[in-house]
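Model it.
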Amino acid sequence: MSCTLFRMWVLVIVLALTGCASIAQRAGNDLASDLQRGIFDHDDPATVAAGLPAYLLLIDGLLSSRPDNTPMLQAAAGLYSAYAGNFVDDAERGKRLSARGLDYARRATCVELPALCAKLDGPVDEFVEVVATSPATSISTLHTLGTAWAGYVQAHSDDWSAIAALPKAQAVIERVVELDPDYEKGLPWAYLGVLHSLRPAGVGGEPERGRAAFEQAIVRSRGANLMAKTLYAERYARLLFDRELHDRLLNEVLAADAKQAGFTLANHMAQARATALLAAADDYF
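Modeled.
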């Protein structure tokens, strides 16, 4: 492509995104929503891994002129967190990108829920108290904050200050399922399953609550969320050394159809992970 033609295309894109303010805002919101849907329904994780950084930069650019656009802030938080947690092998990059995702989630919270925003860095009990009064209309903001925070904690597992904030992330996700147990086809339950299964019961963990949460994630997605089963096997069954449950869940994942609306990308990744976990099962158990 010639330089002149390339510049023309750049001009077309810029004009399309920065024309009339109301049109641009609507187009940006639609772009963020469509982008998320297209990514989550893709069937090739490698293609998403290669292409997603360009769209992350695009959303960064859009937000530079619309810093308080909640739908775009939520999309940026979700996409950065997903990219950091699933496609980044370098630990330091994962920390940086998950922090960016959490920052976008916090910004969305401050736009939509100023009372909660004021407690983000305060004591846990005060934060939890405000979370408990968050209205149903704020559920998407809460979901974005809770899941981005959980991803941040996972990426910063060697940072005590990050770990200390885990109860806040958990409280937010618990409020989401309290407001709507079927939200996002039960996806928040899978996050709770992981959070409750981080440690054995003897050292403060709550694996049985984790098991119940994973079961909820499976039931409420009507079996469409295969990652819930893979995480159930990896986080709960391995924690309790339950080989029978572990192998049953993973074989069910491999036998299922990965193409499910909203879960296709995650399901392909779940099947790849299930294969690896089964291959290593003899050594683990």
